[in-house]
Amino acid sequence: MELTFLFKGIVIGLLSSIPLGPIGVLCIQRTLNKHFKSGFCSGLGAATADTIFATIAMFFLTLVMSFIESRMQLLTVVGGIIIIGIGLSIYYKKTSFKRGGKRARNERAFKDYISVFFLTLTNPAYILVFVALFTSLGFESSPSLRQGIPAVLGVFAGASSWWFLLTFSINKVRRKFRPRHLVVLNKIAGGVIILLGIITILSVVFEMPSVGVEQIVK
Predict the structure, then answer these.
(1) Count of other CB atoms within 10 angstroms of residue 146
(2) For residue 2, what are the contacts with CB-CB under 8 A and spacing of at least 6?
(3) Are 130 and 54 in contact (CB under 8 A)?
(4) What is the mean pLDDT of residues 3-12?
């Protein structure tokens, strides 16, 4: 029975990660500009944050919803500003393939992991996406630990698998790109991320319906 919940969690992790938004663009950009480890660790940061959101959706939704609702607009605006800042840094980035020793690359990969982890956490509204996914796959509103723990672990496994497949595939074609190609790609990636950050802020300013919560951070 636990394997069923684990499998459902994996499906939820995949479904929540596949839509390509700022995080996906960022992981692709880092993989191309640096290396596979940098892109994958960035994705793991998002997967870790998603697992926290999934845990809240599964076990603590009632306790945190009032806190989230009262600060939703502020957190959304802050997240949008951070996304725009990341987009600008990519847009104006001087492009080069990152070199350096193993230790330097590990340090950069860890920083990439931390940056995406906290960026993803700035969008707590994503918790509602997990609520919807858990409900659609037949989870109870107050699940037992026997159901919840395998499901949450499955979310992390599913999300991590997606980020591995995405960055691994991008890394396979990385050697075909030259610095001049990466300049163009950085302009495109930076522009897309800036646009998504602006849309995120405008959704609060004009009280527009959320632009697909999964698209705002993912």
Answers:
(1) 11
(2) 146, 150
(3) yes
(4) 91
Compute how many other C-beta atoms are within 10 angstroms of the C-beta atom of residue 103: 8
The answer to whether the pTM exceeds 0.70 is: yes
Helix (H, G, I), strand (E, B) or coil at 76: helix
With bands split at pLDDT 50, 70 and 90, how would you rate the model's confidence at 218?
low
H-only helix segments in the chain: 2-17, 22-33, 36-55, 61-91, 102-121, 127-136, 145-172, 179-205, 213-217
11 φ, ψ (degrees, to nearest 5): -60, -45
* Separation between Cα atoms, residue 139 and residue 133, nearest integer Å: 9
C-alpha distances (whole Å) from 201 to each of 80, 84, 195 are: 5, 10, 10
pLDDT digits (tens, 9 = 90+) for 192-208: 888 888 887 887 777 65
